[in-house]
Amino acid sequence: MPYGGQLPAGRGSEVEISFPRGFPTAIGLVYDNTLAIPELGVEPQPIGEVRIAAHHGDGTHQIVEARVGAGVTDPKQPDRTFKTVVHFDRPADVDYVILVRRDAGTRPIGWDLS
């Protein structure tokens, strides 16, 4: 069972994450879109955008359009990291999550379940 991984770069990339029902209560996304290393051709990126679909046992989904990276204000992250946390509305009933990349960034977005 993965605890964390990466959503690949590029618009439309997708990751399906399966786990025992009720395991996580939230998903975290992290993306340092400010990183710049000119000698390597690494340039800052736009804010990451991810569609999160958390599946419930009754067949419904919690759909969240999340933004991640510098410039995103998340009151649940007072340390002002590059992390966005989405809490599941019915955590005891979630059994898989699908992440779809909406932006055209050229670096992956990290994710973790907790």
Note down, in words, how this protein is organized.
With 114 residues, the protein is mainly beta. It has a single domain (4-113), classed as Sandwich (Jelly Rolls). The protein has no helices and eight strands. It has strands spanning 4-7, 14-18, 26-30, 48-56, 61-68, 83-87, 94-101, 109-113. Strands 1-8-3-6 form a four-stranded antiparallel β-sheet, with no helix packed on it. It has a four-stranded antiparallel β-sheet with strand order 2-7-4-5, with no helix packed on it. The radius of gyration is 14 Å and the shape is elongated.
Using the 3D structure, state the CATH architecture: Sandwich
Largest sheet: 4 strands, antiparallel
For the largest beta sheet, what order do the strands appear in spatially? 1-8-3-6
Tell me, rounded to a whole number, the average pLDDT: 90
Helix content percent band: under 10%
* Structural class assignment: mainly beta
Uncertain runs are none
Write the topology of this structure.
Blueprint: E1 4-7, E2 14-18, E3 26-30, E4 48-56, E5 61-68, E6 83-87, E7 94-101, E8 109-113
Antiparallel strand pairs: 1-8, 2-7, 3-6, 3-8, 4-5, 4-7
What's a concise summary of this model?
The protein has 114 residues and is an all-beta fold. 0% of the residues lie in helices and 43% in strands.
Features:
114 residues, Jelly Rolls, 0% helix, four-stranded antiparallel beta sheet, mainly beta
